[in-house]
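Forwarding these from the shared drive since the link keeps breaking.
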Amino acid sequence: MKNTIRFGAIAAAGALALAACGTAPEEEPTAAETGGTESEAPVEEVDFKACMVSDQGGFDDASFNQSAYEGLQRAADELGVEIAQAESTAESDYGPNLDAQVAAGCDLIITVGFLLGDATLAAAQANPDVNFAIVDFGYEEPVENIKPLFYETDEAAFLAGYAAASATQTGTLGTFGGINIPTVSIFMDGFLAGANYYNEQNGADVTVLGWDGADGSFTGDFENQANGQNTAQGFLDQGADIVMPVAGPVGLGAAQAVQAAGDAWLIGVDSDWTQSAPDYADVIFTSVLKNIGNSVFDTIEASMTEYTNEPYVGTLENSGVGVADFAEGTVSDEVVSELETIAAAIMNGEIEPSTAG
């Protein structure tokens, strides 16, 4: 079996646990009544429309857009809300897509990603009676009709960095990003901090390529898989045997390089890549989970009764972030136990999961 750490299992299973607690009718309709099996009983529709606009990575990015969209779909399935979505393929799509969702009468419009920050603000200011939420972005001054959804992904990446440092056979790890923005570099920084902590605690000398705590390696985009493949190959050529791309679909290019190498591992981000990128499941060491789907679902559910612009913050403690199972045979039971202790220390503030601490 794969090694599973208790907090990681809780975070990874969060969506399943929440999915199991949707409101059901007092008496389940029969198969004859629903036209199918008893498990296919429809959820009663409600008068609420939740909408979503992706960034240019699209909803099939095996990353944060896909995770957000899964939360939207879950809301339709379990809460009975009407949903709509607009997929962006370029920055020029953001404004028109937002305008289209406003015109469609959406009660809540969720935008996915830092890149939509300016367009979301413009739409919110032009439509003060429409409520918005945005994944991975906030504003210096709170906006009355925009709810930010934040994630302390450095907490989970710290654990992945520690585990990777314990498992590397070459003593070299690598991480790179798509674009140098805070929601990307926070993963990289937590990963480096975790590897550094492993070195401190174990007298080791594991090196992390691609991020030094202030600067690092970025492909400059979230779309071109060839850029990810080339960047990862550069790390592999320097001896890295575990690589963590934080670059949306660009990371799939890194997965190609790692899989072709035959003696290396990849760390997924945002979702569990053994599920979202199954073609590369055989080389996934673990994934740093940003449980965006949970936050989207929770935001929609809360907004159905009372909308607030109070930020959502996902942490290890509330299962907003976590780590997926480790590949079989890569992480010892001793290290798993250490990770549980480290997670508790992060949650109570004894360990700062970044290089700034």
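-- next protein --
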Amino acid sequence: MAFTDNCELFASVHEDGVNRVINHIRRQRPSWFNYATADIASNRELWCSKIDVTSDVVKYKNSFFTILPPLPILGADSPPIGIGFIAQLTKALIDFHPGNKFSLPPQLSPPLQPQHFALDFQVCGGLGCASEKELEQIPIGGTSPNAATFEGPKTQVVLRTQPICFCLEVFATGHFTLENGFLLGHVDGIEIVDITPDGLESNLECYLKMCVTAVLREKLAIQMEKLTLSFPLFDIATVTLSPSPNPPVPNNPAVEEDQLKIFIKMTV
């Protein structure tokens, strides 16, 4: 059966192309993949992983990191105390059905199911750990530079720390739908390799699932208006392109043969 038996136009993207684009973006927009507090971002010796960038990033002095506020120390409020941290996405691969780029862990019930995609990514990061000498700088009795005024927020003290780095190998599976005019990815399952105890693993997996879902919905949802269009035809009629209905197309979008496929109908 031809790709256009139930539609007028057909478009697809191969997993190799998607992975190549991800790698290009990672090198050209490193701040989308690396997050840290200002103290750690400014010191290369504290990074958990080396960042590979294009020459333009250095030439135009683009940021390597998205800068985030320090993580507060619970119970410390006079003055408030914060520590640095870092999180880096060091690898990201997508695999469309039938799944041949990497092997899924047993917890995700391999092989990859029809009409699904899989993700393999590595997250490296660490929380800042202060030395005993640094901890001795915390004022005894709980004093603050602006405590006497009782006005405004108290100034946060950020301890000088060094992150204790670790890396996590994460796998996820999901599927695509067309919703409210967007091509949208959904996470079905997620698994972190070799994490104990089970409660810690479940917490981390839930957090990472929320992160991936947020990125899929906010950053990677593709508006179908970008893939479809209407245009005049010699001032006689207007040609309109839109996603083909499902059915008669068996799956639209379709994830198969290492590709993400879209079927489009044309009306005049």
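Residues 198-218 form the longest helix (21 residues). The chain is about 20% helix and 40% strand.

- D.
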